[in-house]
Amino acid sequence: MKGIKKIAIVGVGFMGGSLARAVLKKFPRVSLWGYARSKKSLTRLRKARVIKKLDLSIERVVKDADLIVLALPVRKIMEYFKVISPFLKKGAIIIDLGSSKSKIQKAANSSLPKSVKFIGCHPLCGSEKKGVEFSKPELYNDSFCLITSSSKSKASQTIKKLWESLGAKVIFINAQTHDKILSSISHLPHILSFSLSKHIPDSYLKFAPASLKDLTRISASPASVWTDIFLTNKKNIIKDIKGFIKILKTYQASLELGSKTQLRKLILKANAKHKKLSK
Amino acid sequence: MKGIKKIAIVGVGFMGGSLARAVLKKFPRVSLWGYARSKKSLTRLRKARVIKKLDLSIERVVKDADLIVLALPVRKIMEYFKVISPFLKKGAIIIDLGSSKSKIQKAANSSLPKSVKFIGCHPLCGSEKKGVEFSKPELYNDSFCLITSSSKSKASQTIKKLWESLGAKVIFINAQTHDKILSSISHLPHILSFSLSKHIPDSYLKFAPASLKDLTRISASPASVWTDIFLTNKKNIIKDIKGFIKILKTYQASLELGSKTQLRKLILKANAKHKKLSK
CA spacing 20 to 30 A to B5: which of B90, B149, B201, B221? Predict the structure, then answer.
């Protein structure tokens, strides 16, 4: 990679671990460092054998790095902007992989020194699973990666090429639009899945059909990640919850009326949307 | 199968076709008949090569049958009780595969002659796919089949053995309890999936992550099947929609408050429920 000799990964979990593995596979000569926030975490990361250069000192991990990846929950990303700031070399590129972007962008603007470049990234390939043990080098292949910084800077072109070299399709989009879209296609769906799990009485669980298992799969998603996403995108999510309740009430009204015609119309429209979705 | 020499399948689609294939595999000497409601349907069924004895006359299909399977949408099942009544032989067993049961049970009681036995069945292994072309002989293997008639009659024991011989686990349950459970684990989830598909703007669809695809998979389910299910179980479903909206509003309230603690609690509870669900 042009100009990228040392990469520091802060947050070697499912996403960060997968990125480390993908990068090492594609660029075996890059110097890849991973930060371990505790001795316990160091032991775990050593066992996982994803990154060789592991260190408990954030300073040693990020200093001299040309690229720092913050693969952390959203609030931690914002905290770590401050933590890493004193140690960053001039011209370093910082990226994150967070699922909400406006607040992160603001925090980056106010916390990071002017001598570095922040490029917000969101690869659309998460998992309800957590931890480096589930990481896989092919995670980003054939996925979308949304970049929420301007496409014009040299740094964003470098990052675009990095994602593309790992098989991702890059789309530039502003942070506000990103958060609106993600609220609709991911954040609301997670709330629906969590709520559905909550709704089903324990004694019914043994009858769960495959469809219910599909709908509740992401209700296993970790609270540590999702409380942050929800709180940093709450305006959009509240709007989406309200909109969704409105749709549920059209079903309720059609049922109360006993209107086959209305229900049929609603279902046929959903069928048509599903067709577009599965294209 | 003891006492079952001729089986008539009315509704040779995904469920009925799969049952035909499973039965023919397990009991190759049984005389299996399929009803074709139109010439067009006859041509299609001939092409599918699932059942050899196909006939446009419902009389010829059901007369002398020891077992008649109504594998139709719920309202059609209720209609066909009347259609087949004049032709049923004494002692014949009639089963259905419908997803709501109370209304069907009532219709069976009022429409079928006293000389036959109706046993309500609901194998929990549907699909969003429709049509005999998708049928598969292993569909019922390792699935639950709920039987909503009393377990005491000879006929229900015969039907229990039939399902078990195809690999299904049979549970006897009354129709009212069945409908309450199914509203929660299947009917509400379908409404959520239809509603979610409706909610996502077209221009966002290209970004759909795998999680959204899982949640909207069953929004491809056919209106012909689901309007009937919804309308024949509407009291339970309305109650479930209302309960679900309440849960959504707890998320909305936690977001409005910006309460990390509350959101964390909600998500951890959903996580715990998911663990039970995936056991």
Answer: B149
A1 falls within a domain: no
Helix-helix angle A223-232:A188-199, to 10 degrees: 130
> What CATH number is given to the structural domain containing B182?
1.10.3660.10
Nearest CA in chain A to B225: A264
**What does the alpha-carbon distance between residue B182 and residue B233 come to, in Å, rounded to a whole number?**
9
Q: What is the ipTM of this complex?
A: 0.91
Q: Per the structure, how many domains does chain B have?
A: 2
State how beta strands B67-70 and A93-96 pair.
Answer: unpaired
Structural domain range at position A73: 6-173
Q: Which of B186, B197, B223 sits opposite A277 (nearest CB)?
A: B197
In the structure encoding, which two tokens stand for residue A94, read together? Answer: 């910082």
Contacts of B256 in chain A (CB under 8 A): 234, 238
Nearest CA in chain B to A128: B211
The CATH number linked to B43 is 3.40.50.720
Encode pLDDT of A235-263 as tens digits.
999 999 999 999 999 999 999 999 999 99
User: Do residue A193 and residue A135 come from a single domain?
Assistant: no
DSSP B186: I
Q: Is B253 near chain A, with CB under 8 Å?
A: no
On whether both A201 and A248 belong to a single domain, the answer is yes
Kindly report the pTM of this predicted structure.
Answer: 0.92
